[in-house]
Specification:
Elements lengths: L3 H16 L12 E6 L9 E7 L4 E7 L5 E5 L4 E6 L10 E3 L3 E17 L2 E6 L7 E5 L12 E7 L4 E6 L13 E5 L4 E6 L11 E17 L9 E6 L7 E6 L9 E7 L6 E3 L2 E2 L8 E6 L3 E15 L2 H4 L6 E4 L7 E7 L6 E9 L7 E2 L2 E2 L6 E2 L5 E7 L4 E18 L2 E6 L10 E7 L2 E4 L4 E10 L9 E8 L3 E6 L5 E7 L4 E9 L2 E9 L5 E11 L2 E23 L5 E12 L3 E7 L5 E11 L4 E5 L4 E3 L6 E2 L10 E8 L3 E8 L5 E10 L2 E8 L6 E11 L2 E11 L2
Parallel strand pairs: 32-38
Antiparallel strand pairs: 1-7, 2-5, 2-7, 3-4, 3-7, 6-13, 7-8, 9-14, 10-13, 10-14, 11-12, 11-14, 14-15, 16-21, 17-20, 17-21, 18-19, 18-21, 21-22, 23-29, 24-28, 24-29, 25-26, 25-29, 27-28, 29-30, 31-33, 33-36, 34-35, 34-37, 37-38, 39-40, 40-41, 40-42, 40-43, 43-44, 43-45, 46-47, 47-50, 48-49, ...
Length: about 700
């Protein structure tokens, strides 16, 4: 049911939007024109590279904090590398330093950071300044008593930023669970490294700030799983908690054996994670589930979670390759196009793709459709996964619907990996979606538009959320749009085939369904639809002025705000231009309020609804009554109706011919109204029985006995 306050909120937001000239809204994602980034410590001084790509020709600068700007030029859909001094990855733990890297461009770009030392390398996807947040939870990987150096990093985007850190384990002079504050200026960086024995882990550390910041999860050289060699550097730029999601589909890393390590971290208490249909034990905020997955998988959660995929060490998964870390975005954060690059010096490069089934066969890699045979359906998720081997260099992927992409590569005892890109919409704050119009009729070959209004827990609009639209029926298809400042995403299409479309409008776990009828002429013109109440019976009357291919009408009833149920059917008149009158009586209803609708059905199975404009109310009876059971005689079941004009205690009992009680059908307090109960005599022999209604309450007494016959 649509909520008026939600629609009002959307309307108010629209008014504000119209009054704010010059404002425009675009989907927040990993593309941007301004980035503040950093690198974490590796085993020694690494080679640092920024890889920059764009959909258009553009230029800009990369400026290591305190250093000279380094100009760059990008040709559309190619990758430009920019080298950074290796010293920018070297930090002293728990000390603020000045080692941020500022990337500025004239047009939107995507930036990847590579931290390279032979045998200990990883890469990360840089997140632009405009989507950085003020609330993070660190995710990395625990120490394992080989190289104990789990760490995280923070880079400030504005001066005088106050940052509150609550470490998950005691690290140096910072006590576990005790928050501390640091104040940083733009471009300054901070790294905290824990060198304690296994299983020390800074994952679960919470970081909040009064201005947007960037946060890195990292390890100097980690063994994954613990106890397996060899170690490798891992790093990822972490998304803010507002962008975490609930729905994930996964693909294993190609060429590896024994599966990959996955970690799922909760943002709220009592989070239940389900992996391939199996619920896991509930976890609380900052807690994690670590598991090995050997095949394509489906991960869902009742609350927003952060999910990461880890390449395991070569002693666990075979050479070539050692650990790396990749953030896995929820599928509501996928994009519809990516340009990626491999890292030079590696013997094998791969791209994992997670695509909606609707684009399998049309999704392109470097402008060539990826063969259908490369994809395998991922359970019943509606997605398929592929593991694509690619040549060194840059690669572009595109599709008409959003999909997920992950770039990685292996060398002897070395590896790198990063997500190709992602939307960074505040999906974690979404509480629901309303789609409109609920039902409409258009002639074929015209355009129809559907609005999806996305709102938060306060029924306020949420901006920048991707909304997916899927048409099923006469005009199958799909598309997507992002919500604007009014929280509304609009999707339009043209219906070329007559019939009914069911349109599913969704974002994440939330969905709404609307219907669209396409016709050259209306199948049924309903000229009237009325109701009349007589005691417990409702008579429905309706008339049509014209009918085309009309099989008939299902009559559906619901209690107010309840579910609809079919209560009858009246045959239609096929095709006619003459007035036709119809009636249906719904009998012996209990006291209460009801709604009715007609489901008009064509001979080809298409249908549309006509709602009765008023509610129907069955009142309380004027007097006590106990009716003759029906059927009578019966075997083995019959129905007994009785009426109570006031509230009180009632009992309905059955006696045999000798006066012995054989059944107490109903007893206890009853409100005034009409009642209908079923009596089953399967355990009784044939014969005459008596049923008796007794009532006391509201200053009145009533008793009546009736006879019935069981005939077997």
């Amino acid at each position: 049911m649509k909520k008026t306050n939600r629609l009002f909120a959307a309307f108010a937001a629209t008014v504000v939007l119209l009054m704010s000239s010059g404002l425009s809204y675009s989907a927040p994602d990993s593309k941007g024109t301004d980035f503040w980034l950093m690198f974490n410590g590796n085993l020694g001084t690494p080679t640092l590279t920024m890889f920059i790509t764009s959909d258009v020709n553009t230029s800009g600068t990369v400026t290591p904090q305190g250093g000279a700007p380094i100009p760059f030029n990008v040709v559309a859909n190619t990758v430009t590398p920019v080298s950074i001094p290796g010293s920018y990855a070297n930090h002293t733990s728990d000390v603020i330093d000045n080692k941020g890297v500022h990337v500025v461009s004239n047009d939107e770009v995507t930036v990847y950071g590579l931290n390279y030392i032979a045998f200990t390398t990883d890469a990360y996807l840089g997140l632009p300044t405009d989507i950085l947040g003020t609330s993070y939870v660190v995710l990395t990987y625990r120490n394992s008593n080989v190289v104990n150096a789990v760490q995280f990093g923070v880079v400030a985007t504005q001066d005088n930023t106050t940052i509150t850190i609550t470490p998950s384990v005691t690290t140096g002079g910072r006590t576990a669970g005790v928050p501390y504050n640091i104040v940083m200026n733009q471009g300054e960086t901070y790294e905290l490294r824990n060198t304690g024995a296994a299983p020390n882990d800074l994952s679960g550390t919470t970081i909040t700030s009064d201005k947007p910041i960037g946060v890195m999860g990292s390890h100097q050289c980690v063994n994954i799983p613990a106890g397996f060699v060899f170690c490798d550097h891992i790093c990822e730029m972490l998304p803010p908690t507002t962008t975490w999601g609930r729905n994930f589909v996964t693909v294993p890393l190609r060429s590896r054996v024994n599966g990959d390590t996955w970690i799922i971290m909760a943002s709220q208490n009592a989070t239940v994670v389900t992996i391939n249909g199996v619920p896991q034990a509930p976890i609380n905020a900052g807690d994690r589930i670590e598991t090995i997955l050997t095949g394509q998988s489906i991960i869902t959660a009742n609350n927003p979670v952060l999910v990461a995929q880890y390449s395991n060490g070569s002693s666990f998964s075979g050479n070539p390759g050692d650990p790396f870390m990749m953030i896995c975005p929820p599928y509501e954060q996928y994009l519809s196009g990516y340009t990626l690059t491999t890292v030079s010096g590696y013997v094998a490069h791969y791209i994992n793709v997670v695509a909606p089934n609707a684009v399998v066969g049309s999704l392109t890699l470097d402008a060539v459709p990826v063969p259908v045979v490369e994809f395998t359906p991922i359970g019943a998720s509606g997605f398929s996964g592929a593991q694509l081997a690619v040549t060194p260099g840059s690669h572009t992927l595109a599709a008409t619907l959003p999909f997920g992409v992950f770039q990685y590569g292996f060398n002897n005892d070395d590896s790198y990996g990063y997500p190709g890109g992602l939307s960074l919409s505040p999906v974690a704050v979404v509480s629901g979606i309303d789609a409109t119009p609920e039902f409409s009729i258009n002639p074929i070959n015209t355009q129809h538009c559907v609005d999806g209004f996305v709102y938060d827990q306060n029924n306020q609009p949420v901006t920048g959320i991707r909304v997916d639209f899927e048409q099923r029926g006469a005009n199958p298809g799909a598309g997507f749009a992002f919500t604007g400042g009014n929280g509304v995403a609009q999707y339009c299409y043209t219906g070329t085939n007559a019939g009914l479309d069911t349109i599913i409008v969704s974002t994440g776990i939330f969905s709404d369904t609307v219907y669209k009828r396409w016709d050259g002429a209306l199948p049924v013109e309903l000229s009237s639809f009325t109701s009349t109440v007589t005691n417990r019976d409702v008579r429905l009357s309706w008339s049509t002025s014209e009918e085309i291919n009309n099989s008939g009408f299902d009559i559906e009833r619901s209690a107010v705000s309840g579910t609809w149920a079919k209560v009858g059917f009246v045959a239609g008149s096929g095709t006619t231009s003459e007035i036709r009158n119809y009636e249906f009586t719904d009998r012996n209803l209990a006291s209460g309020k009801y709604q009715y609708r007609l489901k008009q059905i064509d001979y080809n199975g298409n249908f549309e609804y006509f709602n009765l404009s008023n509610e129907v109310e069955i009142g309380v009876p004027a007097r006590f009554d106990l009716a003759q059971n029906y059927p009578n005689p019966f075997n083995p079941s019959t129905k007994i109706n009785f009426s109570l004009p006031v509230d009180g205690n009632a009992s309905l009992t059955v006696y045999d011919n000798s006066g012995r009680l054989v059944s107490n059908i109903a007893s206890g307090f009853k409100s005034a109204g009409y009642y209908s109960v079923d009596f089953n005599a399967a355990n009784l022999s044939s014969g005459v029985y008596f049923y008796k209604l007794e009532f006391t309450g509201s200053g009145q007494n009533f008793s009546k006995t009736m006879k019935m016959t069981v005939l077997k």
